[in-house]
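In this section we walk through a basic example: taking a raw amino acid sequence and producing a predicted 3D structure, encoded as discrete structure tokens. The instruction is simple. Fold the sequence below.
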Amino acid sequence: MSNRQTVAVIGAGFSGLLTALHLTADPDGPTVRLIERSGAFGRGAAYTTGNPDHLLNVRVANMSAYPDDPEHFTRWLAGHDGWSAHGGFVTRGVYGDYLQDLLKIAVESSAAGRLLLEGDEVVDVARAGAGWKVTLGVGREIEAAAVVLALGVLRPAPPTAAGPELLASPRYLPDPWSSKAVLDNDIDEVLLMGTGLTMIDAAVTLWRPGRRFWAISRRGLTPRSHAPVGPRPQIETPRGSPIEILRDLRAASHDGRWRGAIDDLRPHVRAIWQGWSARQRASFLRHLRPWWDVHRHRLAPSVARRVALLMRGRELVVRAGEVTSMTLGRDGVEVMWRPRGGKLSRRLSVGTVVNCAGLLGDLDRATEPLLRQLLSRGLIRPDPSRLGAEVDPGSRLIGTGGAQPGLYAVGPLTRGAFWEITSVPDIRTQSSDVAQTILGGLKEATAAA
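The resulting token sequence is shown next.
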């Protein structure tokens, strides 16, 4: 064991766990230190929930943790009791059980000390000779040949319309996934900032009879629903500008089968994104991204029906517009917002504001201490599209001095390079690729020594 090199994986959600599993699968591979500050290894924020209404947004058949074994998850389900499926979608809690089972098997089957779970926070990562030094919150240091940032989804930035008094009060919930995201029973009106998947989760979680949610975003678009699996339209390998690809997508789905057309486009998304110029990417993000998001990232049908009932009963009211101010009062929050295309502002009184803005991309607005430290050291930098950190095609982080040997990122932090890198089918491939790159690099270094 003393001859093994060490790889530190920071973050033990899906992307970090899968990277660690691939690294330990090689019997001659490194010692892997999987570091997680929350103490919950394998689940991450997405799969910690025990709410039975929180279903996966992808069908069971496409949720295997291993890209080369697409039936792995379905076989696991067949060997376990106590779960149920809703139209091919299981709860996120069940998927969290699956991930923790994979972690348990890896710890038990690997050589003693190969996979070490570190319940601590990483406060710094710095160069140390040809490798890296990882500093933990307790002051302990880990020498590593390679480091992988698997930080998951970053907490969204506070809304600009909210002042410091509101942001510091219990009437503002910055993270709907936090265990502290609970509402008093006497709160009847709630503002959800955003109308995407995070908003749906918050509404389902915080709902009670008599409570009404107001959801406001720039365009007021909400996620569409999955449909039963049916015939797939044919779509040629797409190429061209965002507008040209949109035109081809519409042509392929003229009969209403747009879901199949988008699913057929999925294997080409990375190549399309990487083939666009910076100007074309900016055009897509500015004009088409909201429409892509609600059609591409869909709801399980049972969740969509639940949301439709809430909207029909006006328990969930979705509006397109801009929140211009939020003022903390004695009995709640006074919100001023302007409908999209309108000139006059409207007033809304709510008991609590919940930030459901979704993914944060611009690193210059990130509050994550480790990212702030890496930015100050010049080890990382924002990608040109301001979607995360800049990486090369092999997921190596790029700093002010170029690509950093031995410093990698997996998951949503790399959206600027790969775009579609937030769901299981995409991350499982990236984590496998990064692990194989690291293993290959370590073997080359050993052979050269």
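Looking at the output, two observations stand out. Residues 120 and 138 are 8 Å apart (CA to CA). The longest strand covers residues 316-328. In the next section we compare this with other chains.
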